[in-house]
Amino acid sequence: MATAQVIARPTPHYWPAPAKLNLFLHITGRREDGYHLLQTLFQLLEVGDELRFAVDSTGRIQRDYDLPGIAETNDIILRAAQLLQTRIASPHGVRINLTKRLPIGGGLGGGSSDAATTLVALNHLWRGGLSLQELAQLGLSLGADVPVFIHGRSSWAEGIGEHVVPVDLSPAWYVVLIPPVAVSTAEVFSQPQLRRDCPAITIRDFLAGQAGNVCEAVVCKRFPPVAAALEALSEFARARLTGTGACVFASFPTEDRARLAWKSLADHWQGFVARGVNQSPLHEYLATQSL
């Protein structure tokens, strides 16, 4: 099986859309409108997709990339741009280019991160003047994970994604395996056997090991390649599912140990090695554009 190595650092002149890992995922309840109430800990990674924006005066939002199976009307990047354009009444248009590295349906937050980067970048390029909090409120209508990427910090999150508290996580390197399947979050959340009554925990509880991913058993049963990936990675460290999957990951204290494990897996799995970061590469890039 061919391997898929994701580059370690963003490319100059492109706006980064970093990946995330859910270090745990609990469902603590369900609202009357059907939304699940969650607790999770988001770890940002130094790798991800990249976007480029060419602002013009046409007023049109156009994409210069192709996403197989995703029509323009369903493209979260275009929806984010249109949402912001309406919110700030911008007369400007933009052509958007995307370098897609994160798998769709992988649980790495690719779509949400792309949307967040679009909102942050165009707010800057169109001189929208919205605060990060205002952008996060816009982003929540696109997806529960979008505000985390907009705020740009590894974070503890609760509710449907609206309660976010930045957390400084200890340095770590991660091996991420990409099973050859795409997992639908909506499908996983619709499963009757999914546990929805987890007791609320604290960060201290998480650090003490009192946390897991309630989606893992459901996903492994429905998608055998995910179960196989967890088994393979578990030979080197504790392996876990991120989000609703399909990707699985394990943490290592050093880059050398992570790459040694990956070397043993690379002939049979797609995946990559990435450093966990507390501040998003998106905000580091934004700072350079504001100088």
Low-confidence stretches: none
Briefly, what CATH class? Alpha Beta
Q: Any idea how many domains?
A: 1
Number of helices: 10
Question: How much β-strand is present in the residues?
Answer: 25-35%
How many β strands by DSSP?
A: 10
Distance from first to last alpha carbon: 45 Å
User: What spatial form do the alpha-carbon principal axes imply?
Assistant: globular
Helical residue percent band: 25-40%
Q: Multimeric state of these chains?
A: single chain
By secondary-structure content and strand pairing, the structural class works out as alpha+beta
CATH topology value: Ribosomal Protein S5, domain 2
What is the alpha-carbon Rg in Å? 18 Å
Average the pLDDT over all residues and give the rounded result. Answer: 94
- The CATH architecture can be given as 2-Layer Sandwich
**Main sheet summary:** 10 strands, mixed
Element string (H = helix, E = strand): EEEHEHHHEEEHHHHEEHEH
Overview of the molecule:
By secondary structure, the protein is of the alpha+beta class. The chain has a single domain, classed as Ribosomal Protein S5, domain 2, CATH 3.30.230.10. The protein is built from ten helices and ten strands. Strands 1, 2, 3, 4, 5, 6, 7, 8, 9 and 10 form a ten-stranded mixed sheet that branches. A hairpin with a 3-residue loop joins strand 5 and strand 6. Helix 7 packs across helix 8. The model has no long low-confidence stretch (mean pLDDT 94).
